[in-house]
Design goal:
Layout: H1 2-27, H2 29-32, H3 36-51, H4 58-66, E1 87-90, E2 93-95, H5 98-107, E3 115-119, H6 125-131, E4 136-141, H7 144-156, E5 162-166, E6 179-184, H8 193-197, E7 199-210, E8 214-223, E9 226-235
Parallel strand pairs: 3-4, 3-6, 4-5, 6-7
Antiparallel strand pairs: 1-2, 7-8, 8-9
Helix pairs in contact: 3-4, 3-5
This protein binds S-adenosyl-L-homocysteine.
C-alpha cells in the first residue's frame, strides 16, 4: 500500500511538472516553432545579413533569431523565408527583407514599455518582431483578407500583445493614440500629418517616403509643432494607398 502510494505521488509530481512545463512553453510558443533546421537559417540570416550590415542591438538580433519568419510567408516559399530579399505574401504585397525589418526596429530605440502603431500589417511579421520588444502593438491593414489572416496567425503563434485593425492607416488609430513610436511599412508620398499628431512628444516615426524614389526617414517629434527629419537609406516599399470610400 505504502509502495503504491509513493508511486502515485511520484507519478503525480511528474504529471504536474509536465503541466507547468507545457504552460511555460505556451507562454513562449514562438521558439517552439523554430526547429534546429529553421534556427540555423535564422542564425545565419542574423549573422550575414543583419550584423554584417552594422546592426548591433542585441535585443533586435535576439528577436530576429527566434521569430519564425517561415510561418509568415506562403508555405510554397517557406524555404526562402530567411533569404536576403522581400517575398510576396499575396494581394500584390510583400514581407520586407529581413535587414529592413531589423533596421526599422533598431531605429526606434525601444526600451520595452512602448505602445507602438504600425501601418501596413501585411503578414504580421514586423508586428511579431516588435511585440517581443515593447508593451503593445496596434497595427492597421487596408486589405481585409490580409488583416484577418495576420490576426489569426499572430493569435495562433501566441503574440498576445498585438491588435490588428482592418482600416486605413491615413486615419491612424485615434482611440488608441498617442503612441510612443510609429512604424510605417508602406510608402506615402509625404509623411501623413495625422500620424505626427498621434505621436507622443519625443517619439519617433520610421517611414519610407516617396514615389518611385523612396527614402527611409526617421522623424522625431520635438514639440507639438516641430519635427526633426533624418534620412537613413534609399528603400523600395509598396505604396501606402488611399482608401476608396
Ligand atoms: N509589415 C508587413 C509588410 C508590409 S507590406 C510585414 O511584416 O509583412 C505593406 C502593407 O501595407 C500591405 O499589406 C498593404 O496592403 C498595406 N497598406 C498599404 N496602404 C495602406 C494604408 N493606407 N493603410 C493600411 N495599410 C496599408
Amino acid at each position: 500500500m505504502k509502495k503504491f502510494l509513493s508511486l502515485t505521488i511520484i507519478l503525480l509530481v511528474i504529471q504536474l511538472g509536465s503541466i507547468s512545463f507545457a504552460q511555460s512553453q505556451q507562454l513562449q510558443p514562438q521558439s517552439s516553432y523554430m526547429s534546429k533546421q529553421w534556427s540555423e537559417k535564422a542564425n545565419s540570416m542574423v549573422k550575414y545579413q543583419i550584423e554584417k550590415r552594422g546592426i548591433t542591438n542585441i535585443d533586435v538580433l535576439r528577436v530576429m533569431r527566434i521569430t519564425p519568419r517561415h510561418l509568415f510567408v506562403p508555405s510554397a516559399l517557406s524555404s526562402m523565408a530567411y533569404n536576403d530579399y522581400p517575398l510576396p505574401i499575396g494581394k500584390e504585397q510583400t514581407i520586407s527583407q529581413p535587414y529592413i525589418v531589423a533596421l526599422m526596429t533598431d531605429l526606434l530605440k525601444l526600451k520595452g514599455d512602448e505602445k507602438i502603431l504600425e501601418i501596413g500589417t501585411g503578414s504580421g511579421y514586423q508586428a511579431a518582431v516588435l511585440s517581443q520588444l515593447v508593451d503593445s502593438v496596434y497595427t492597421i491593414e487596408i486589405i481585409e483578407s490580409l488583416a484577418n489572416s495576420a490576426q489569426i496567425r499572430l493569435d495562433n503563434l501566441n503574440y498576445k500583445n498585438v491588435v490588428v485593425k482592418f482600416g486605413d492607416g491615413y486615419k491612424g488609430w485615434p482611440s488608441a493614440a498617442p503612441f510612443d513610436a510609429i512604424i510605417v511599412t508602406a510608402a506615402p508620398k509625404k509623411v501623413p500629418q495625422i500620424l505626427i499628431d498621434q505621436l507622443k512628444i519625443g517619439g519617433h516615426i520610421v517611414i519610407p517616403v516617396g514615389d518611385k524614389w523612396q527614402e527611409l526617414q526617421l522623424i522625431t517629434k520635438i514639440n507639438k509643432n516641430k519635427i526633426k527629419k533624418k534620412t537613413i537609406i534609399p528603400v523600395r516599399f509598396v505604396p501606402m494607398v488611399r482608401s476608396t470610400e
